Amino acid sequence: MENEIQDNGLEIVYKKPSTLTDTPLHYCPGCGHSVVHRVLMEVVDELGIQDKTIGVAPVGCSVFAYNYMNIDMQEAAHGRAGAVATGIKRVLPDKYVFSYQGDGDLAAIGTAETIHTVNRGENILMVFINNAIYGMTGGQMAPTSLEGMKTATSPYGRDVKLMGYPLKITELLAQLPGALYVTRQSVHTPNAVRKLKKAVKASFEYQKLNEGTCFIEVVSNCPSGWKQTPVQTMKWIEENMFPKYPLGDIKVPKF
Predict the structure, then answer these.
(1) In the chain, what percentage of residues exceed pLDDT 90?
(2) Taking Cα atoms as reference points, which of 223, 124, 111, 118 lies closest to residue 167?
(3) Per-residue pLDDT tens for 123-147?
(4) Which residues pair with 52 in a beta bridge?
């Protein structure tokens, strides 16, 4: 389809989808949350499932997602998005259901809900934003904080003898029989965003099959929590996050 030409002669090559509201985003400049929001809603728009999609957002930086996504949304208690999404999908099996959670939520207070949701093979998509820190509440150490990483609660760096190792929960979940599709993506470059969009679209398509849980980890940044400029965080992700959290598919359907 040809791109739209405006009255001033300029060609429109991109439009914000109707699945995103006009509410200004509250996220810090350079944060990856807004890009992931856009990708999710572009896919919903392109698949024509706006009236059939339900999102679940808990506490943390994702808590206001329902202000930006023009779909049915349900807020969940901290860490409980997997349980809430399970209930919604079981009551409304024909809907496309996804949770949207950060690392402090999904991999800390919500570890039990996350593991058991995937182990049951609930027919939902779980979107997991991993920026290795508690972004909203003051920059505390998260389960995914890297070894030696300085945070508000590990000012001298994460000491694994005292605080344990960074949790690679995505690899852990991929071992569960209920996991259908597990992948780790990012939004640090335009090409990475395209790959994430492909993964999101595949995950929504897989829900039609009712064969298990789809899980997408998005390695993202936190300029405020990391105390870096947005540009610096992009380099830091490549040099520090990706060696620990390599991108790519971890588990794909065998059909």
Answers:
(1) 88
(2) 111
(3) 999 999 999 999 888 889 999 999 9
(4) none
The DSSP result for 56-76, as a single string, is EE-SSGGGGGGGTB-SEEEE-
Residue 236: what pLDDT? 96
pLDDT on residue 1: 45
Helix axes 190-206, 33-47, angle to 10 degrees: 50
State how far the Cα of 231 lies from the Cα of 237, in Å rounded to an integer.
Answer: 10
pLDDT range class, residue 3, cuts 50, 70, 90: low
Q: What's the CATH fold of domain 25-251?
A: Rossmann fold (3.40.50)
pLDDT of residue 11: 84
The count of other CB atoms within 10 Å of the CB of residue 115 is 17
> Which residues, at least 6 apart from 110, have a Cβ–Cβ distance to it below 8 Å?
58, 78, 79, 80, 81, 82, 101
Cβ-contact 123, 217 below 8 angstroms:
no
Domain parsing of the chain, residue ranges: 25-251
Confidence (pTM): 0.94
